[in-house]
UniProtKB/TrEMBL annotation:
Its EC number is 2.2.1.2. PROSITE patterns: TRANSALDOLASE_1, TRANSALDOLASE_2. GO terms for molecular function: transaldolase activity. Transmembrane segments: none annotated. This is Transaldolase. Signal peptide: none annotated. It catalyses: D-sedoheptulose 7-phosphate + D-glyceraldehyde 3-phosphate = D-erythrose 4-phosphate + beta-D-fructose 6-phosphate. The keyword Cytoplasm applies. Pfam families: TAL_FSA. SUPFAM superfamilies: Aldolase. It comes from the Bacteria.
Length: 359
């Protein structure tokens, strides 16, 4: 068994945070599914910019699309929707064999719509219809408008990966919107047993920002927290998840076949060379979760990663880390809001570069 496949018995699914036509046609993605138990795939504008700009398999199709009277965004979608469909088809056996737990493939709505609830709803429904696969997920950012859209999409029966979550306000807003969406669907007499959603919580970007603040404070207490905040936050967030989805509020929905919205760990490649390169995987393995992992981190874990159930170890210490952060005057929720704004800006820039490619 590969080191990556050894994670599955602990209840966590590993997804690949990458997608390209070459990855599909070379058989590499199929190999990862077979050998490493990769159970899903995520994409974003930055991933597709890299793929389309560097993978020669897109060149001919893009040249043909540029001869047609289409917008740059229409050309982009004409390139990537078939890739999403092909990936969904590749992972369809996982979806069927696990009764809808595994096999999901995510495509993001236009980041230009991050603050437009109705625009996000319309864009997501159009992409969902275009992909036309039950194991697709539409990615929506966890902005205020995105949360409104998310609730409506769940009520409409669409699988959603809601992304760019950085603090407990985001986690609680999103999970409560998920439950409201399911409740609205039940009230309308619609089934809920086929709907799946994940809530993507970002890690390495958190430590990158917070560690700079801790370095600026400069005290021994501050420096002792460096590299610990993102993991501590996630351990606290997981307790929120358990309380909500294993508690009384979700019980009626669960009895009707509804599934919890799993937490997904994203941005799990370390950005600080002083940290262990697999720490955002190793430290956060636990039941009913997903980790979407970039290629380099996947390679590192395959080489020397250690699979163990650690998500609920040292939870009291994690709470204490967050308390110490407050004592040092660092407002984690405000930092999370800034990180979401920064993340949206990065996705906007990547999407704009994509549209330049397809003009």
């Amino acid at each position: 068994m590969s080191r990556i496949a050894a994670i599955k018995p602990f209840g966590q699914r590993i997804w690949l945070d990458n997608l390209s036509r070459g990855l599909l046609k070379s058989g590499e993605l199929a190999r990862l599914i077979q050998e490493d138990d990769i159970a899903g795939v995520t994409s974003n504008p930055a991933i597709f910019y890299k793929s389309i700009s560097s993978d020669p398999l897109y060149t001919g199709d893009l040249a043909e699309l540029k001869k047609q009277d289409l917008t740059a965004e229409q050309r982009y979608e004409a390139l990537v929707v078939p890739d999403i469909q092909a990936t969904c088809d590749l992972t369809a056996p996982l979806y069927r064999d696990t009764k809808g737990l595994d096999g999901y493939v995510s495509l993001e709505v236009s980041p230009h719509l991050a603050n437009d609830a109705q625009g996000t709803i319309d864009n997501a429904k159009r992409l969902w219809a275009a992909i036309a696969r039950p194991n697709a997920m539409i990615k929506v950012p966890a902005t205020s408008a995105g949360v409104i859209a998310f609730e409506e999409l769940i009520a409409s029966g669409i699988n959603v990966n809601i992304t760019l979550m950085f603090n407990l306000v985001h986690v609680d807003d999103v999970t409560n919107a998920y439950i409201r969406g399911l409740e609205a669907r039940v009230a309308a007499g619609q089934p809920v047993d086929h709907i799946r959603a994940v809530a993507s919580v970002f890690l390495s970007r958190v430590d990158t920002l917070i560690d700079k603040k801790l370095e600026a404070i400069g005290s021994a207490e501050a420096k002792a927290l460096q590299g610990k905040v993102a993991i501590s936050f996630v351990k606290v967030a997981y307790q929120h998840y358990k309380k909500l989805f294993h508690g009384s509020r979700f019980a009626d929905l669960k009895a009707k076949g509804a599934h919890p919205q799993r937490l997904l760990w994203a941005s799990t490649g370390t950005k600080n060379a002083a940290f262990r390169d697999t720490m955002y995987v190793e430290e956060l393995i636990g039941p009913e979760t997903v980790n979407t992992v970039p290629d380099a981190t996947l390679d590192a874990f395959r080489d020397h990663g250690v699979a163990a159930d650690k998500l609920e170890t040292n939870t009291e210490a994690a709470v204490e880390v967050m308390a110490q952060l407050r004592k040092l005057g660092i407002n984690y929720n405000l930092a999370g809001e800034q990180l979401q704004v920064d993340g949206l800006k990065l996705f906007d820039e990547a999407f704009d570069k994509l549209l330049e490619l397809t003009k």
